From TrEMBL:
The keyword rRNA-binding does not apply. Keywords: Transferase. It comes from the Bacteria. Residues 25-194, 213-386 form the Glycosyl transferase family domain. This is Glycosyltransferase family 4 protein. Gene3D superfamilies: Glycogen Phosphorylase B. InterPro entries: Glyco_trans_1 (IPR001296), Glyco_trans_4 (IPR022623).
Length: 412
């Protein structure tokens, strides 16, 4: 079977599925957006590069900026697909992340090809991320109008796609009918054999200081430190935590940029804004126990979670982070926000502890309580790992389901 993957940042969510399909003997190719030739990450995997030949129109209506950008990218890959077709290539199946628009014209080029899309999130003006945090209210009703155009990309794909894939039931639930029934819920999968406890693990800071399981390490992980993942809430809980836990060391992973939501209106990053807010409330000694390590490589990330005594994960009602499930697999004790994406993984007081997203006092108190209760931490950590293995293990659960999903789409 010929399978083409379309993902702007390939392999993205398909990093396990692609080699598994290749191992089964399928002819697998992929596209990636790059102005320069890209070396294939896997032997035998054909990579086709594309890059837009135009930029967004200056002064275009602001509601149309997002849709125009998606159209420009879709145009770029349309011409690439036409070249591929001219050279005799027709895939049996295209699997795409449609979020950037590239897969809009797959059926125009190959009408008989099956199209399956990764259904990550459907935007809504109420009940999800938008308007969730009163600290960052919608600037105006215009935001809802802008969101309508942002969702047009989803609606266009609904008319084209033969099947969809969502990593969680809650993310699927954001999508409307008549397309939602075409979406299968299968997580991308985590390797629980690699993501496992290690009593001998250690984690070194850039200055050479090293932490082990004997240290009271609190971890907090975001792609970028920003409000969507509760960075501001966590920072506001630290004065009480650091005051009552004199041995606690807080290690935060994440960049200074923005992955979700709006950028700050001022020149400082979200990270700096809330660090500046926090600094006057802490002594020099307390500040020295907060460690920002930026973005770190995966082996170092695993080592950090392996020494974590408590892992805090907060999020708006939005896409669930891989890092939460990875922390569960490593047997971390999880303290998380009581928001909808968490409810599938964190059962309160069973696989972790849930607190109201906005309740800074409760977050601080629960952190202190859990740090003072090793028996509860051990029970929660073991249950979290068992849950991760049962529901999210790559090799025994998710990958077999993904492969069956592919076979079902093409009918082979």
């Amino acid at each position: 079977m010929k399978i083409l993957f379309i993902h702007q940042n390939f392999p993205g969510q398909f990093k396990h599925l692609v080699p598994a399909l290749m191992a089964m003997g399928h002819d697998v190719s992929a596209t990636i957006m790059s102005p320069k030739p890209v070396k294939s990450p896997l032997p035998g995997l054909k990579i086709f590069g594309y890059y837009p030949k135009r930029f967004s129109t200056p002064n275009i209506h602001p509601w149309l900026v997002d849709m125009e950008a998606k159209t420009i990218r879709a145009e770029a890959i349309f011409h690439l697909m036409m070249q591929m077709k001219a050279h005799g290539y027709t895939p049996d199946l295209v699997i795409a992340h449609p979020g950037w628009g590239e897969s809009l014209f797959v059926k125009t080029v190959w009408p008989q090809t099956k199209l399956a899309i990764y259904c990550e999130f459907f935007y809504r003006a109420e009940g999800q991320d938008m308007g969730f945090d009163p600290e960052f209210p919608r600037s105006s009703i215009d935001d809802e109008c802008r969101l309508t155009f942002k969702n047009n990309n989803n609606y266009l794909h609904f008319d084209l796609a033969d099947a969809g894939l969502s990593p969680t039931h809650w993310q699927k639930s954001t999508f409307p009918e008549p397309f939602a029934h075409k979406i299968s819920v299968i997580h991308d999968g985590i390797d629980t054999n690699v993501l496992c406890p290690n009593p001998q693990a250690s984690f070194a800071l850039d200055d050479g200081r090293r932490f082990s399981r004997d240290d009271e390490v609190i971890t907090f992980v975001n792609r970028n430190l920003e409000p969507y993942r509760g960075y501001h809430i966590f920072m506001r809980a630290l004065p009480k935590i650091l005051s009552e836990r004199p041995n606690a060391q807080v290690i935060m992973v994440g960049g200074d940029d923005v992955s979700y939501g709006a950028r700050p209106k001022e020149s400082r990053s979200w990270k700096q804004i809330y660090l500046d807010e926090l600094t006057p409330q802490l002594s020099a000694e307390q500040l020295a126990r907060i460690h920002f390590v930026g973005k770190i490589d995966y082996p170092r990330f695993i080592s950090l979670l392996q020494v974590s005594r408590l892992h805090v994960y907060l999020t708006y009602p939005f896409v669930l982070s891989w890092s939460l499930l990875e922390a569960m697999s490593i047997e971390c004790t999880i303290l998380a926000s009581d928001t909808q994406p968490l409810h599938e993984a964190i059962i309160d007081n069973q696989t972790g502890v849930l607190v109201d997203f906005f309740d800074v006092e409760a977050l601080a108190n629960k952190t202190i309580e859990l740090l003072n209760d090793p028996e509860t931490r051990t029970r929660l950590g073991k249950a979290a790992r068992e849950f991760a293995i049962k529901h999210y293990d790559l090799k025994t659960q998710c990958l077999p389901q993904q492969l069956a999903w592919v076979q079902n789409i093409v009918g082979n």
